[in-house]
Amino acid sequence: MIGGEQRNKENSGTNSGRVPRDISQIFTIAKYELLNYRRSKRFLGLLVIIFGAGLAASVVVGYYRPPSMMSNAASFLTHWLEYTVVVVIALPASFLGGDAISSEFQSRTGYSMIGNPLRRYSLFLGKVIAALAASEFMLVVFEALLLGNAVFYFGVYSISFQFWESFLFSAIAIAGATGLAFFFSSLIKSSAISVLFSTFLLLYGFNLLENVLGRLTNIEPWFLLNYGAQIIMNIFIVPYPVHMMASQERMTYFATVTEGIAIMVGYFIVGLVVSLMIFRRREFT
Q: How many domains does one find in the chain?
């Protein structure tokens, strides 16, 4: 979080000059948020977890060489992402976005805005940019490990354009998860509870709800983030799965690429718009 002293330093120049423009405020806040991330144990811990997850997967695959993964590069990438990508999406978004706003109320650093020409939406957007940048950086670290493994086992020419499409979809999924985390962060004043809600929903809640809906109804779960994010893995399947498959017991749905992107972008935009509205109306009492 940005401490009151840092904010006051940035705004001290306004006593003898003009008020900083909104865009300048936004990027100043984002800069200090990123600096605080770099110094915090939370960010370093998340980075260790993400890197450790990729390293552990590398060791397991290298030792056991599961036949289901080692047939070709596409199968390797699909299985790797199926078991690991949810952690890379959920944890950074939850822990970096889940307390971005609630911490301003819990630790009362938001009081530094009173008497200073710092707009709430500038503070909000600066935090969004910082949380996204840090989360996407962790995704890059993870994808670099994945790419290194795929090149080691199958050669550089085995990496198809689907890998880069999947990487793009993962980046969009992190944005969607960040929008959801910011919603909880603006709604709940306790940072711990906000992070807990975000983490549980992203890691378990959506999957549980999708399974329940799949068993009890034939409704397409187009409103669930994890349903849209399945395109991260499905893009490696050739031909791409049909949108709807019927069986004797139930209907199985697969999000199309366009639908998946729309769902993830929708979570990002709606989550941020609603959380900004809540944040601007909430009083620092």
A: 1
- Per the CB < 8 A criterion, the answer to whether 27 and 10 are in contact is no
Contact 80, 181 (CB under 8 A): no
Q: What are phi and psi of 246, to 5 degrees?
A: -100, 140
Q: Can you give the pTM of this predicted structure?
A: 0.88
Q: Is the pLDDT of residue 232 over 90?
A: yes
> Could you tell me the CA-to-CA distances from 277 to 51, 78, 120, 281 in Å, in that order?
36, 39, 10, 6
Give the domain extent around 47.
Answer: 4-281
| Cβ neighbours of 70 (radius 10 Å) | 15
134-164 pLDDT, tens digit each: 999 999 999 999 999 999 999 999 999 999 9
- Enumerate residues 6+ apart whose C-beta is below 8 A from 236: 74, 75, 77, 78, 162, 166
CA pair distance 69, 71, nearest whole angstrom = 6
Burial 155-181 (b: 16+ CB within 10 A, else e): eeeebeebbeebbebbbbbbbbbbbbb
| Helix (H/G/I), strand (E/B), else coil: 246 | strand
Helices 22-39 and 41-64 sit at what angle, rounded to 10 degrees? 60
List, for residues 181-201, the tens digit of each pLDDT value.
999 999 988 889 999 999 999
pLDDT digits (tens, 9 = 90+) for 65-124: 999 899 999 999 999 999 899 999 999 999 999 888 887 776 665 555 555 667 888 889
Distance CA 22, CA 67 (A): 55
Burial grade of 29 (CB within 10 A; 0-12, 13-18, 19 or more): buried
